[in-house]
Amino acid sequence: MSDAPADRRWLDSLLAWYFVSVWGSGYLATRVGLQYAAPFTFLTLRFVLGVALMVPVVLWLRPRWPATPRELGHVVVAGLLMHAVNLGGSHYTQYLGLSAGITALLLSAQPLLTALVAARWLRERLAPAQWTGIALGLAGVALVVWHKVDVRAMSLGALAAVTVSLAAVTAGTLYQRFFCAGVDLRGAPLIQFLASLAVMAPLAWAVEGLRVDWSGPLVGAVAFLVVFASILAVNALHVLMRHGQAARVTTLLYLTPIFAVALEYLMFGEVPSAISLVGVVVTCLGVAMVAWRR
User: Fold this and answer.
1) Rounded distance, CA 248 to CA 126, Å?
2) Which of 124, 187, 201, 266 has the lowest tally of Cβ within 10 angstroms?
């Protein structure tokens, strides 16, 4: 029995680092994919592939399905928030010209919002040092992406889209934890992909005409985002939410811009500035302060 907590801490650490690395890589995969398909069409492709991949998985694993219409409704609502609304907003933000730096910075406010909501409605109490860590993490992210910020590219539409995305991912993460705590994570993605596809496909057809410039990079970007992000990383996040406190878990999102900056250097030769490196140190300090347990 004494080994169980240590085993779970090891698993949580593995899931946390997997989530952070994939979520950070997802910014670059999205950047590639949006060159070949508009955001709603790109997301429609993601959900179609997600359904195609999940059908044989659920036939093989035979997961427990929602037992009541109420439980099914909760799974659908959580999926629409996390997949359709969140991703639709963040993708459309970039499509409207908002820089990756400002997008990442605004979306990185999620841990702060999560902590505020969790403290108010989920009765999660954080120590003063942890609140300081949340603020430090947000400040560190600002330093990491500062060299990418271009306020001239900001528009009211893009700002509205990223605000919708931020609200949706915060609400979806907490909603899934609160209302879907007993849901079988092996089958939930199929339900959520189908619900998101039912919303996104008509939008893609009406707004964008479902135009796709087929290419190898597009297929690779969609496959990476579906398998490693939408299925595995999202489920990893929900497992972590079930094991720990909401504020501690979502503060890991502060680390994703660091991975994005590192990958941009490796893939595109974009050298991070000295202030970005300072931001990496500040962000890691903030995350450590939030994750610390007495």
Assistant:
1) 9
2) 266
* The length of the chain, given as a count of residues: 294
Burial class (CB in 10 A: 0-12, 13-18, 19+), 159: middle
DSSP class of residue 81? I
The DSSP result for 148-206, as a single string, is G--GGG--HHHHHHHHHHHHHHHHHHHHHHHH-TT--TTTHHHHHHHHHHHHHHHHIII
Q: Which amino acid, residue 186?
A: R
Would you say 162 and 93 are in contact if contact means Cβ atoms under 8 Å apart? yes
Say which amino acid occupies 42. Answer: F
Contacts of 198 (CB under 8 A, 6+ apart): none
- What burial class does residue 10 get, using C-beta atoms within 10 Å of its C-beta: 0-12 exposed, 13-18 middle, 19+ buried? exposed
SS3 content of the chain, % helix, strand, coil (to 5): 80, 0, 20
Question: Mapping DSSP to helix (H, G, I), strand (E, B) and coil, where does residue 212 land?
Answer: strand
Give the amino acid at 277.
L
Q: Which residues of the chain have pLDDT under 70?
A: 1-9, 99-105, 108, 111-112, 115, 118-126, 144-154, 243-254, 257-258, 260-261, 264, 268, 270, 272, 287-288, 290-294
Contact 150, 102 (CB under 8 A): yes
DSSP 226: I
Under 8 Å between Cβ of 209 and 60: no
Over 25-36, what HEC string results?
Answer: HHHHHHHHHCCC
